[in-house]
Structures are given as C-alpha cells and as structure tokens.
Write a structure and sequence with these properties.
flat, 27 helices, five-stranded mixed beta sheet, 939 residues, 27 strands, alpha+beta
C-alpha cells in the first residue's frame, strides 16, 4: 500500500527531528559524564534507640558501601532514654533521624520536619499480658494495673482504649521507665512493649503471654520512620534522595543477609543483645516491613491523614491541621533535570509534528473504544444486577419493588414464601392482586406519596398473607434510575408479630395483676426506671387511700412521691431497698409512714425489678403490719421481764459454780503443763540419743579406719613396699581430716551457741564466692554427671560478710544438693534482690536492702511437715536418713552462721520435684555486728 504524500512528508520530518534531538541529547550526556564526581558529604543519622537489628538497614548501607557509592560519609549515632531524636534533627546536630509515627505530631505542632520513608508498615508497639485466657481485649483491663506511658509516644495505646470505650481513668496506670524485670512482674496485668523485642524475655523464662495489638482495633500506625528537616530537604535535595535510596538498598540487603548483619551489629556496634535475641528481632522486623507485599519505605497519604485524625481526637493538634509539605516529594537531580529539560524540548517538537498523524489515529480508535466500553458496561450491569438479586433473595426481610402504576417489578424469596407463591408468578401480577381492595388502595397511596415526594416513610400494619395475618414494620424507599429519576418504590418489611404479641401479653399480665391487687387489703404499685436512675410513677391500687388516710385527689397531687409520707428516720431503709433492687433485683423492707391525721403506721414493702425489651420496671406490694408490730412489742416486753428473772437465777447458779470451775481449770492447766514437759523431755531425749548414735558412728568409723591402717603399717612395715605404706598413711590422713571436720562442726556449733565465735567481716562479691565454691566441688559434680546452672546475676552481689563462714554455708548447701540430686540432672543457682527487717540497738525494727541466693536441686524433696525442723540440731529428714553417716549438723551450722550475719535461711519444695534452699544476707553488717556484740556482752 502506497503512503499518501502528506503523511510521507510528515513522517520524514519526524525522523529528521528525532535524529537531531538524539545527537543533542548524546552530546549533553557526554558533557555530564565528563563532569567531576561529587565530594563525599559528611552527615549524621540519629537512631531512636540502642544498636540492634531494628536499624540493620542503615548498618548495611554503611558497611556494604551503599552510602559511599552515593557520595555520602554517614555517622550513625546511637539513641537512648536521654536522647530526643526529633530535637537532634531540628537543632541540626543530626541531619537525619529515625522515630515512630509521632513525627507527624511534631510536624503539625510547628516543627519543620519532612518524613522520607516508613520502614515498618505496622507499628511494633503492643501490650503484653501474662494473664493468658483471662485478658484478651482492652475491656478486660478495666480496673487493672497497666505499665505504659501517658506521653505521646504511647498514643497508639491511648487511641486503642478510646476506640473500645475504655477511659484511661479506668486503668491503674504505672508511668515510669520500663526495666527488664518488669516483664516478669506478676503484679502487672499488662505492659507496653515492642513486639520485636520484649517477648523474647518471656520466651527465655518459658512464661506464657498474649498480645493486644492496636491494629486489631483499627489503630494502625507506621513504625520507624526515616525523616529529615525542611532545611535539609530544601537545601540539599540531591543528598536527600541519595541518602534515602542508599538506606532502602541497605534494608533490602539486611533482610536477605540477616546472619551477616547480626555479626556486624555485635562486633562493630557492640550491641548487648545475644545472637538468639537479634535473630528473634530480625524475624519480627521482617513481618512488620512486609517486603514481599509493598516496596520498603512505602507511605500512603490517606493513612497519614488517619493517624492525624487520631491526634486530633485527643486535642493534640489543631482541628484545621494541614499536612502540606510533610511527606517528602523527590526533586530531580541535576542530571535528571537536564534530561527532563531536553526531553521536554524533544517532546514539544514531536508533539507539534505528530499532532496531525495522532489526530487521525485517535478518531479511528475512539469509535472502537466506545463500542468496547458499552459492552463492558452492559456486562458489569448484568453482574451487578445478579449480585443484587442474590443478596435480596437470601435476605430474611420481605422485599418488594413496585412502580407508580402498581406493577410488581421484583419480590424476594421471603415475600414469595409469605404469599405462598413463586417469585416468577408474583412478578407478573399487580400489587392490587396481593391484597384486599381497601387495603391495596391505602398501600398504593403510600407508595405514590414516596415516589412523588422522593422521601422515605415507615409504617406499621397488620397484613393478611396466605397462612394468616402478620404484623409488619415497612420502610418504603424511593428508587432512582441511571438518570437520577425516581421510577419506583422499594418496600422492605420486617415481621414483628412476635414482638407485638409479647407486648400484648405484658399489658394483659399487668392488667390481671392490678385487678387482683384491687380486691386485697394490700396495695400494689409500679414505677418505671429511667436511664438516669430516676423513678417514674406508673400506677397504684385503691387500697392506698385507706392505709394513708388521703383522698384520691390528694394522692394524685403527690405525683408518685411516696417518700414524702415516709418517717424521716426510715428514709435510709428505702434507699437501701432501691440499691438491693438494682443489684439482686428484689428486696423486702419494713418502715413507718405518717398518715394524714399524724398517726404512725408500720408497713411491709416487698418489691421486684422486672426487665423488658424497652424498659425496666419496679413492681411492689405493701401491707399494713401495725397490729403485728404492736403484738410483737408486747411479746418482747414480756420476754424481757422473763429474761431478767432467768438472768438473776442464772447469776446465783454461776456464783455457786464459780469456785468449782476455777478448781477444774487449775487442775487442767497443771495436767497440760505436765504433759508438755513430758513430751519435751521425750523429744530432747530422742534427739540426744540420735545425736549420740550419729556422733558415735561418725567417730567410731574414722577411728576404726585409722587403727586398721596403723596396724597394717606396723605389722607389714618390713614386708610391704613404699607405695603400700604411702597408701596406708594417705588413708590415715584422709580419715583424720574427716574426723577433724566432724570435731570442727561440733566446736563451731558449741561456740555459736555460747556466742564465742569470731567473724572476720570483709566486703566480697557473693557471686564470685559461689563460683569459686562450685569450682572446688567440680570433681564431685563430674562423678555424678551433674550440671550447675549458675545464672548471671542481674543484681548487686557485693556485700559485707565473713567469706570463710558464708563459704562454709555455700559448700554445705551445694554438698546437700550434690548428694541428693540423681545422676545426669541439674542444680540451679540464681540471685534476686530482697529486703530484711532487723532489730537495731534501740530495740526497733529497720528494713534494710539484701540479696537472696537460691540453690535448687532435682532430688527427692523434703516432707512438708519437716520443712520447719530440717535446720534443727541433730535432725535429719526422714527421706534422707539412710544410716550411712552424717550428724545432721551441716544445715544447723549454716542456719547459725546466716542468722549471725543478720540473715534468714529456709527450705521449700519445688513444684516439679526436688527442693530449694535459700538464704538472704543484708548488704551491710555494721548495725548487725554491733547488736550481736551487745547481746554477747549481756550474756
């Protein structure tokens, strides 16, 4: 096909201009390529918290050279509690910063800030609670203790409570810096946390927990937003764009190489977190960034507007706030601007030349597009109509569409069911065919009124159907066509027959109750309880006139104010009855009223609170009990007189029996003292016998060994080898050491009981002392393949004590744990802060700071009845008394040493088996030692 001359000429001009512009653009880019590179800019990025995986993208951008490639030298500064990231950027001590969605609050309150990117698409701020199953939503925290900030940094939590109808005044809020141990505090019902960090602490301790997220209640903020100042954005647009792009690139790298970044964070940025903790944080951070769903750093203006609306609800920003300039808009770089300028010139030239050719093409395509659009519109309409019809047909309401002439355009399944016919049959009939003539006229008049006025109406009617009459409430609405013209009415009806029947039954029941009440001597009444708690008088029976002496007109003038007749001293009883009705829904009270003639009448008032769909009502019946009250008073007087006589006679009998009772009590006390003394002596005798048996065994066994090995040495002196003799002497030495330990225990116990033992007080680190003693016992631990879990102390363990004596306590408790822990099991040791109440020289009590150490084993435990006596002298547990040795002095001596230091020691069984021995020592010994010396001198 031959091209027309005019179009051929236009085509030649377009090709010539394209070639000319291409050469010009090529020359311009060659000039740019030859221009020198940018010098590296020194800038500072201020983080909002300490070094951790939360900022891994920025570390990656720096360590992998992304910032350097962009011509930037970036200094990454660590944040903390005392560092305000926003102020650092506003005061230009840092050019860029990282903070949460609170950045918008600062912007709308006048600070010149620009947000560059939202790294976390969802905020990590949540509430953690250890009350699993008990606390599942914000309402469950009413009147509970919540640790969170009242400042704007926790505004998401404030908004969540508000959206769920919970006022902050309904919470017991603890607003103070949060520490690690707070998350393990069972006194806190919930505590604010980052989902990327704090749950790791609970997982380490195997503590169950649940999470309450603001996003689950419609409060969905961004997290970790990268921002800068307006000055930086205006003065250095190329640098801002380069820094943002390099940072996003760093985040892509960090999310794909988490282990490498964890190594960098620990080695180059000295993070205090463990590898496991950083891995947990990396996984949680990735879930909030959503890199597989949205571009990293993506922001939505509408979502920022929603966040601003939350701030406005709390009166934190002006009502007429303006977000203009808050969200960063990229400004083209010099090279990009040059390219855009050249592109615009080329575009204008091509636009002018190609206008004619394009116009011809557009005319040809327009017709095709209109045809396609009409087909698509028809398809969409049919789909929409099908969906609408499906929704209507499955609705539980009765739906009918009728035009102005009474033609039925549509009915749904429910309406067809009520008429006992099919939808197709009904839609081919007229509206008058479904109702009686007079009723149809009324209904059609309503329909035409709605169509003409173009306003909805609501009616209640009894409508006759195939299976009987039904009471319907109908909403008649005008329907418009695509030209916005009303062409029909839509009738949406709800069957309220059962509701109306219940209302009729209620009225009938009330009328029966009033009728019965009218024929009795009692009078009945009814009040309606209004929303404000006030009572609205409903009705009262005629018996009130006889009881009160007032006429019907006089009673009516009171307008139900029954309290005006009640005796002033009994008004409080009526208030109490009303309170009972509101809580337990029934109540009975007796009180007095003052009749018209001034006389007093006693009444018995029995009332009950009833609930209905639209109201609460109090029904009551009142009976005159004046006569029974008078009879009761007369009986009480007679009873009082009789009681006085009985009391007089009883007093005479009491006097005569007093001496006998005293004699019996005296003999009983003497007998109890004798029994107690006998039992005490028997216990002391048993303890002495057991002690002597143990001591004799402990003394006899080593002495027997010493004598035997001495005998072997003497008889075989000339016959045996040097190694054998050395073995004999070694056994004698070991046995002698064992004997000496027993004697030392007995001497130490004796000195402690007489107060003659001296302590060498020094300041030591208890954690170090425990570590040393555990090391000394390593041979025994290895022999039974036991592990020692000595947890790193989170508390101060430096204190004053006698290192040798406290070391002896540690060795006794460790030896005990080793002895009774089965092979291959574990011994746990941990430290916790504590307090002690000690007696001062002025015989007063004083609370001092202390530290507790826990030794937990996995042995056989201690019988509950023996937990108090296990530290007594010469006593061994029934579970551990094997007959294989031991005097039972180790724990007794430990108790004496700890108490001499002003501390306490006790034992308890573990829930999962074994026992834990704990002793607590004060940090200072000066007051305690002075008190002990004074007691010793007095003794």
């Amino acid at each position: 096909m031959k091209m027309p001359p005019n179009l051929k000429k236009i085509f030649q001009i377009i090709v010539l201009l394209a070639l000319t512009t291409s050469c010009f653009v090529k020359a311009s880019f060659a000039e740019v390529a030859q221009s020198p590179g940018l010098n590296a800019d020194n800038i500072t990025l201020q983080l909002r918290w300490y070094h951790q995986f939360q900022f891994a993208g920025y570390y990656a951008a720096k360590e992998k050279g992304f910032y350097e490639e962009a011509g930037l030298e970036v200094d990454i500064k660590e944040g903390g509690l005392d560092i305000d990231t926003v102020e650092e950027v506003v005061e230009n001590r840092a050019q860029y910063g990282v903070t949460n969605s609170e950045i918008l609050l600062h912007r709308l309150n006048g600070k010149p800030l620009v947000v560059l990117a939202a790294i976390l698409q969802h905020s990590p701020l949540v509430l953690l609670t250890s009350r699993v199953g008990e606390i599942t939503n914000p309402q469950d925290l009413v009147n509970r203790t919540v640790m969170m900030s009242l400042q704007s940094r926790d505004i998401e939590l404030h908004a969540m409570f508000r959206s769920e109808g919970v006022s902050l005044n309904q919470l017991n809020i603890v607003d103070q810096p949060i520490k690690y141990h707070d998350y393990l505090d069972t006194n806190l019902d919930a505590i604010s946390a980052y989902i990327t960090n704090e749950p790791f602490f609970l997982m380490l301790e195997n503590k169950p927990y649940s999470v309450i997220k603001p996003a689950s209640y419609g409060i969905d903020f961004y997290g970790d937003c990268l921002f800068t100042s307006e000055k930086e954005s205006d003065d250095n647009p190329d640098r801002v764009e380069a820094f943002k792009a390099a940072s996003i690139k760093g985040w892509h790298y960090a999310l794909h190489h988490p282990d490498e970044l964890i190594h960098i964070i620990r080695t180059k940025y000295n993070s205090g977190k463990s590898v496991e903790h950083l891995r947990y944080e990396a996984k949680a951070i990735k879930k909030l960034i959503l890199p597989d769903l949205v571009e990293i750093g993506h922001m939505n203006k509408g979502r920022w507007a929603s966040i601003a609306d939350v701030f406005m609800q709390f009166d934190m920003i002006p009502y007429d706030y303006d977000m203009e300039g808050f969200i960063y808009q990229p400004v083209a770089s010099k090279e990009s601007r040059r390219w855009k300028w050249l592109s615009r010139i080329m575009f204008l030239i091509l636009l002018a030349v190609g206008f004619v050719a394009v116009t011809l093409y557009v005319f040809n395509k327009r017709l095709q597009r209109e045809i396609k659009d009409r087909k698509l519109s028809e398809t969409a309409y049919r789909e929409s109509e099908a969906k609408f019809r499906l929704l209507i047909d499955n609705a539980e309401l009765l739906v009918t569409i009728v035009d102005r002439d009474g033609n039925i355009l549509l009915v749904n399944n429910k309406m067809a069911e009520y008429h006992g016919d099919s939808k197709e049959a009904l839609e081919n009939r007229r509206f008058h065919d479904l109702h009686m003539e007079d009723e149809a006229d009324v209904y059609m008049a309503r329909i035409r009124e709605v169509i003409d006025s173009e306003e909805s109406r609501i009616y209640e009617d009894i409508v006759k159907f195939a299976f009987g009459s039904k009471w319907l409430i109908t909403n008649v609405q005008p329907l418009r066509n695509i030209h916005d013209k009303v062409y029909a009415a839509q009738l949406i009806s709800q069957d309220i027959t059962e509701i109306k029947r219940a209302e009729d039954n209620l009225r009938e029941s009330e009328e029966r109750y009033r009728a019965v009440s009218e024929i009795t001597s009692d009078f009945a009444y009814a009040y309606e309880v209004l929303e404000e708690g006030e009572l609205k008088f409903q009705w009262v029976t005629d018996a009130i006139f006889e009881i009160t002496g007032y006429t019907q007109n006089e009673i009516s003038s009171l307008k139900g104010r029954w309290n005006s007749l009640i005796h002033p001293e009994d008004l409080q009883l009526i208030d109490q009855q009303l309170n009972d009705l509101m809580t337990i829904h029934s109540g009975v009270v007796e009180y007095r009223i003052i009749k018209k003639d001034g006389s007093i009448v006693w009444l018995r008032d029995q009332a009950k609170l009833a609930f209905y769909s639209d109201a609460k009502r109090i029904y009551g019946a009142i009976k005159d009990i004046s006569e029974s009250k008078r009879t009761k008073e007369a009986l009480q007087l007679a009873y009082f007189d009789l009681e006085q006589r009985v009391q007089q006679r009883t007093a005479e009998l009491n006097d005569s029996n007093k001496m006998l009772r005293e004699e019996i009590r005296s003999r009983q006390e003497m007998e109890e003292k004798l029994i107690f003394a006998k039992r005490h002596a028997e216990q002391a005798n048993r303890a002495k016998t057991e002690f002597l048996a143990n001591v004799s065994h402990e003394l006899r066994t080593p002495m027997h060994h010493i004598l035997n090995y001495s005998k072997y040495g003497m008889t075989k002196f000339h016959k045996t080898t040097q190694d054998k003799l050395l073995h004999y002497f070694t056994q004698i030495r070991k046995t002698g050491d064992r004997l000496m330990l027993l004697l030392n225990d007995l001497l130490d116990l004796s000195k402690m009981e007489t107060g003659n033992i001296n302590f060498a007080i020094d300041e030591i680190d208890l954690y170090v002392l425990v570590s040393e003693r555990v090391s000394e016992l390593q041979t025994l631990l290895d022999k039974k393949d036991l592990k020692v879990d000595l947890k790193e102390s989170k508390v101060n363990t430096r204190l004053e004590c006698d290192p040798n004596k406290i070391g002896q306590v540690i060795q006794n408790l460790m030896s005990n744990a080793i002895k009774f822990t089965p092979e291959g099991k574990k011994i746990s040791i941990r430290f916790e802060p504590s307090v002690l109440s000690i007696a001062t020289l002025q015989n007063t009590s004083e609370v001092v700071s202390a530290v507790s150490i826990f030794f937990g084993d996995q042995g056989i435990g201690i019988p509950e009845r023996e937990l108090e006596t296990v530290f007594d002298k010469f006593v061994q547990s029934s579970k551990t008394r094997t007959g294989a040795g031991g005097t039972g002095l180790g724990l007794s001596i430990s108790k004496e040493i700890v108490e001499a230091h002003g501390g306490v020691i006790y034992a308890e069984n573990n829930a999962d088996g074994g026992a834990t021995f704990t002793f607590t020592l004060p940090y200072k010994q000066n007051k305690i030692r002075s008190k002990n010396r004074q007691s010793s001198n007095q003794n």
